[in-house]
Amino acid sequence: MDEGFLRLSRRFFSNEMWNEARTFSSCEAWLDLIQSARFEATPRKESIGGREISYSRGQYPASIRFLSQRWKWSEKKVRSFLVHLKKKGMITVECNQGMNLITLCKYEEYNPMGTSKGTCKGTDIEKKIKELQSEWAQLRAQLGAQSVNNNLPQSELLQKSGHTEGTNTKKEEEREYIDISSQQKKENTPDGVSKKDKLSSPSLSEKIDYSGLMEYYNSTFKDRLQQIKSMTDVRKKAVKARIAQYGKESVRTVFNLILQSPFLLGANDRNWKCDFDWIFKQANFTKILEGNYNGTRLSKNQQDSEQRKRDSVLAVATTVREAAAKKRKELEAEGVIE
Predict the structure, then answer these.
(1) Do the domain assignments include residue 133?
(2) Which 3 state secondary structure label does DSSP give 44?
């Protein structure tokens, strides 16, 4: 019986049985590639080891060294395994600056965005889809009644129905900031520039908003790590050196990696936690970027489960919006709306 699917929750990969120390089998390594590949439809840029990597749905950036440590294999065995998968037409691999970008050739079959036939219904995503479909039906009804009612201009009608493209574009842009760490709200400086924007803006490459960085650190690690009260000259010097070495975006990346590291947040036999000064030391900052404190990537998957749902809904919303735009053009061509 080789038809249908076994529905496996991603929480399985956070279970102690999966996380026990062991040497992976080839089957486990292949399953690990599937569950580690990016699920979200939207592309992502990430700074890994000081290099900016862009990857999309069904892709997984990982060095040979990282996979060797993860699977408890020799680097030679990892290379042989990837070559075997390429020959079987299961993956393609691009190598850029020592980083492999692995693309799973049939990812849509392994991990479809929607619900497969035969699986359970009533998930949060399905509820969101139904809500979007209902909104689309209401929009169609409003557009169809346009010529019968008060002949409002199309832009005003769309504003009343809450479906302007500008609004959606703005929401998508704001997602970029919401997705940075722990779904914090954007905060603006008095001049109207986001504090996180000031942290990474290329135009401010020689000027660092130390006060904004301190607030960003304290809000990101509130109730997790020791808060800082001031940016001393020693701290400013360390921050400036790290940014000069890896770029401003690396600060966000490091903060995100710390949030995904139970060890750095105190889950160790000494109950030790990192702090601001420890993080910005050269050796420590580099080790965090290189993934030395990641623990397992699986814990990241667990923390991102809600984000996967939101990205899936966003993908559906985009499809609905495109369909709405197409329908508007048809109605305009027929003279139903102006």
Answers:
(1) no
(2) strand
